[in-house]
Every structure is written in structure tokens, then in C-alpha cells.
Write a structure and sequence with these properties.
single chain, Immunoglobulin-like, 2 domains, 6 helices, about 25% helix, about 35% strand
Length: about 325
């Protein structure tokens, strides 16, 4: 599936901001499951963008705005082509998880982190799922995945970044990042390496996994998890929607938890309060029309960029 993605984030400050330094992580990764066809990012006020790959392999677009400003906008656009993940033809016994080489290779995805921690009760629940699965690694991961989907109810805005697993379990409600963190915690508690994934999901309602009625949808960034399977690699699952990762999922990057792949992180010198507006627009491109639509969209974005530059020049002249 070929998808056009437009990520937009803006900050409106109560007072003048004198400087800001930022890191953006919204560019789709290029791997065996997806191909990045194009990508561009621009900011307003305009800033020079320095791009690099972080420790986890995620592209980072770093930029600083040193001129005084009361409004900051970041727009990133990408075109990506996805395909389904490889089929698992066999599954190893859970005893393979204790292989010293395998455990050592995945040590960073077996440890506790600020967002992924667990108690004895959660460990027991995870062990119960492994036993019910018959000590088969893939079946165990699928069992945990299903259990997480049943343990939480999705509610937009139910939690905030930084909520603990204990708080999450007490409320029984969460958003996609909470589902991912809970699944990772359960996997790690029984020795299954698991990592957090940030990305996009082409769907009309990512809390229900419903299909779309058109080719353009407005969504937010999404999150899921990947579990390491001995002899296979990483197996991707979306517990929020209770499904395997599909053509509709576009991966940005992965890490130990949310803190390793936040969409935008930065610091600034100015007032403590700001109004944040974030949105993602995804467009499905047909094979026949993709070239024409991509060209038209590029022309539209160039016109928007030119308009931003014109406004900026006018403000500088005032």
C-alpha cells in the first residue's frame, strides 16, 4: 500500500519566545516491511534542519529557532510504500528464550524502564498466559497480546505520558501507548524481549480499528509493540486494535519505551504556557494515480511553503 503522510505540529505561546531547540522523530523508517519514497520537513519560522540517525536507528530532524517568535509550526511530509510482515512458519519452545546469546543480544529490551515496570501480580498474569499457550513462544506472545486488549478499555485522553503501569491497571483505561507499554511489561516479565514502536495507522478510528470510507483520513501518531522470536526476528502486534501489524501500519521507529521515540521533544526560553495543536493526515494512493497525486501534493506544499516565507519576510520588514 502506498501512503502519503502529512504530520503537523504547532505551538502558540502566551508571550514571546526568544529561542527553542527541538528534535523531531516522525520520518518513516526504511526496512524490510516498508520503503520510504520521499520525505521533507520545514518549519515556521524557518530554521536549518540537521538530520541524523539516533542509537535506535530512528531518523532525527534537529532544528533551532533563535529569533524571537510567538508561534512555531513544524510540518513533515512523507510518501511510503508498505507490505505485510513475514509469516512465521514455526515457533520455538519458550526454553529457547534462556539461550545466553539470545538473551545477551536483547538485553536492552528485557530490562525495566520508567514507563515499563511490573509487579509480581502482573508477572503471574503473564506466566499464566504462557502456560495456557503451551510454552510456545509465538503462542505466548499472541496470548499476552490478546490479554492486554481485554485488560484495558480505550479512551482518548484517559492518560498522560509518564503514567505508571500500576496506575494504568487501577484505572483500566488508556490510549495506544499504554497498551504498548503494558504488553511490553508482560512480555519482559517472563523473559520475552519486547520493544516499543511509534508510527502511523491508516484508519478512520484507531481505537476501534475500523476501515475507512475514503482515501484521506485525519489521525494521530500511533503506537504498538514488537516481540523478539528466536530464529525469526521481531513480530509486530497492535494490542489497541487487537490485530497484527498490517499494510496500514507505518513505522517511524522503535526503542525501549515512549521516551526513546517521542514525535517531538524540545526546550525553549519563554513563558511556561503554550497551546499545542497536533494532527496527521494520511492519503492512500492508488498505483495508477500515485504519481499524479504525489506531484500535485508536492506543488500544493511548495505553494504553502512559499506563502509561509512571504509572511515571514513581511514580519521581518515590520
Amino acid at each position: 500500500m502506498r501512503l502519503d503522510i502529512r504530520y503537523r505540529c504547532s505551538f502558540e505561546y502566551d508571550e514571546l519566545v526568544r529561542e527553542s531547540q527541538n528534535e523531531l522523530r516522525v520520518c518513516p523508517i526504511a526496512d524490510e516491511r516498508q520503503t520510504l519514497l520521499s520525505y521533507r520537513v520545514h518549519t515556521y519560522p524557518a530554521a536549518r534542519v540537521y538530520s541524523f540517525e539516533d542509537y535506535w536507528g530512528t531518523r532525527v530532524d534537529a532544528f533551532g529557532v533563535r529569533e524571537p517568535h510567538i508561534f512555531l509550526e513544524v510540518v513533515a511530509e512523507a510518501t511510503v510504500e508498505t507490505k505485510g510482515q513475514a509469516l512465521i512458519t514455526s515457533s520455538p519452545h519458550t526454553s529457547s528464550l534462556t539461550d545466553p546469546w539470545f538473551a545477551d543480544m536483547h538485553i536492552e529490551h528485557l530490562e525495566r524502564t520508567r514507563h515499563v515496570d511490573w509487579d509480581d501480580a502482573l508477572t503471574e498474569e503473564a506466566r499464566r498466559q504462557v502456560e495456557l499457550a503451551g510454552n510456545d513462544v509465538v503462542s505466548a506472545v499472541l496470548a499476552i497480546h490478546r490479554r492486554v486488549g481485554a485488560m484495558l478499555s480505550y479512551r482518548s485522553g484517559a492518560t498522560y505520558v509518564g503514567v505508571s503501569i500500576d496506575e494504568l491497571m487501577s484505572s483500566g483505561e488508556g490510549v495506544c501507548q499504554d497498551y504498548a507499554h503494558l504488553a511490553i511489561a508482560m512480555c519482559r516479565s517472563v523473559g520475552i524481549p519486547a520493544r516499543y514502536v511509534s508510527g502511523y495507522l491508516f484508519t478512520a478510528d484507531d481505537s476501534q480499528g475500523k476501515d475507512v470510507d475514503g482515501d484521506v483520513v485525519s489521525v494521530q501518531t500511533h503506537a504498538w509493540f514488537e516481540a523478539a522470536i528466536p530464529g525469526f526476528g521481531w513480530f509486530a502486534l497492535d494490542p489497541t486494535n487487537r490485530q497484527e501489524v498490517s499494510l496500514r501500519h507505518v513505522k517511524i521507529g522503535h526503542g525501549r519505551d515512549y521516551d526513546d521515540v517521542p514525535p517531538l521533544r524540545g526546550v525553549y526560553t519563554g513563558p511556561p504556557q503554550a497551546t499545542l495543536d497536533v494532527g496527521v493526515e494520511m492519503r492512500r494512493l492508488s498505483e495508477v494515480a500515485s504519481t499524479v497525486q504525489t506531484s500535485a501534493l508536492a506543488a500544493q506544499r511548495q505553494a504553502e511553503h512559499a506563502q509561509h516565507q512571504q509572511v515571514q519576510q513581511q514580519q521581518q520588514q515590520q
